[in-house]
Amino acid sequence: MRLVVVIIGWILLALGVAILCHDLVKWMLSGAFEVIDAGLFWFSVHPDSLKLAEPAIARYIHPFLWHPVMSTILLAPAFVVFAVPGVILLYLTHRRGRSSPVDLFRG
C-alpha cells in the first residue's frame, strides 16, 4: 500500500513539474508569464468530464463542495494543484532513519 502511495506521489510531483516547465518555456517564447490554471488544464485533457463534474458533485455529494471548494481549486495554478499533493504524499510516506529503496517493498 505504501508503495502505491509513493508512486502516486511521484506521478503527481512529476506532472506538476512538467506543467511548470511548460509554463516557463511558454514564458520564454512569448515574453508574457501566464500559468495555466487547473480548470483549463482539465478542460484541455477531457472537456466532457469537466462539464459533468459540476452537476454530479453539486447534486450527489454537496453543493458547497463545488462552490467554493472545487471552483477555487480549478482557478489555482495547475502545477500547484498537482505538485503540492505529490509532495504531501511523499512526505507522509517518508520513513525517517531508513535510506534503503528496498524498504518500500517491506511495507
Provide the descriptors you would attach to this structure in a database record.
2 domains; mainly alpha; single chain; 107 residues; 5 helices; 74% helix
Explain this structure:
The chain has about 110 residues and is mostly helical. The chain has 2 domains: about 1-35 and about 80-95; about 35-75, no CATH class. The protein has 5 helices and no strands. It is flat and about 45 Å long.
Give me the secondary-structure topology.
Elements: H1 2-30, H2 38-45, H3 47-60, H4 63-75, H5 78-92
Helix pairs in contact: 1-5, 2-3, 2-4, 3-4
Briefly say what this structure is.
The protein is an all-alpha fold and 107 residues long. It is 74% helix and 0% strand.
Mean pLDDT level: 92
Structural class computed from helices and strand pairing = mainly alpha
Main sheet overview: none
Strand content: under 5%
Quantity of strands, as a count: 0
Distance between the termini: 7 Å
Order of helices and strands: HHHHH
Determine the fraction of residues in helical runs and give it as a percent range.
over 70%
Number of alpha- plus pi-helical segments: 5
Based on Cα principal axes, name the global outline: flat
Number of domains: 2
Q: What radius of gyration results from the CA coordinates?
A: 17 Å
Indicate the low-confidence ranges by residue numbers.
none
